[in-house]
Amino acid sequence: MGNVNTGGPHKTVLSTYSSHDAAQHAVDVLAQHKFPVEHVTIVGSGLKLEERVLGRWTLGKALLTGAVSGGWIGLMIGLIFWIITPWATGAVTTAILLGVVFGAIWAATAHVVQRHAFASAPAIVADHYDVLVDAEFAEEARRVLSADALSASAGSRAG
């Protein structure tokens, strides 16, 4: 648990976690105990790109997804026109239909150009996450996290 210079105020590592959720939980605990969390930073180290494959991406799925997205956009545009000119109720239907058509065309074009047979969700992940705090708040933060850990372990033994 050393000191880290991040370019701003001098920071101290409170703890290191293997997941971002665990690091966020530590900051949540500090916040719940009225700790000034604006002095806390979460830093991920050992960054890498992780791409989770969601499934096959076919032309049919691309058309359907594009049509639905386009339909929603058309609905919003149509509602704006309807609010501005309430006597033109056909504007909503027309905007939805045009949105469906253009959305499907746009998605089909993107599918053909990209040439991927799968859908994926890329994310930047870290090997570990350090929770840092301004040096002058380090002792208070450690005290809060230690007290919470003790109460959590006592609660798990009692249950």
Helical amount: 40-55%
Q: Count helical runs.
A: 4
- Rg over CA atoms: 25 Å
Shape: elongated
Order of SSEs, N→C? EEHEEHHEEH
- Strand order, main sheet: write it out: 1-2-6-3
Quaternary structure classification: single chain
**What is the CA–CA distance across the termini?**
32 Å
Proportion of strand residues: 15-25%
Number of strands: 6
Taking pLDDT < 50 over at least 5 consecutive residues as the criterion, the unreliable ranges are none
* Average predicted local confidence, pLDDT: 88
SSE class: alpha+beta
Can you offer a commentary on this structure?
With 159 residues, the protein is an alpha+beta fold. Helices cover 53% and strands 25% of the residues. The chain is built from four helices and six strands. The protein has helices at residues 20-32, 59-84, 90-114, 138-158; strands at 3-4, 11-17, 40-45, 48-56, 118-125, 128-134. The chain has a four-stranded antiparallel sheet with strand order 1-2-6-3. Strand 1 and strand 2 form a beta hairpin. Helix 2 packs antiparallel against helix 3. The longest helix is centred in the middle third of the chain and has 26 residues, at 59-84. It is elongated. It starts with a strand and ends with a helix. The mean pLDDT is 88.
Task: Describe how the helices and strands are arranged.
Elements: E1 3-4, E2 11-17, H1 20-32, E3 40-45, E4 48-56, H2 59-84, H3 90-114, E5 118-125, E6 128-134, H4 138-158
Antiparallel strand pairs: 1-2, 2-6, 3-6, 4-5
Question: What key attributes describe this structure?
Answer:
single chain; 159 residues; alpha+beta; two-stranded antiparallel ribbon; 4 helices; 53% helix
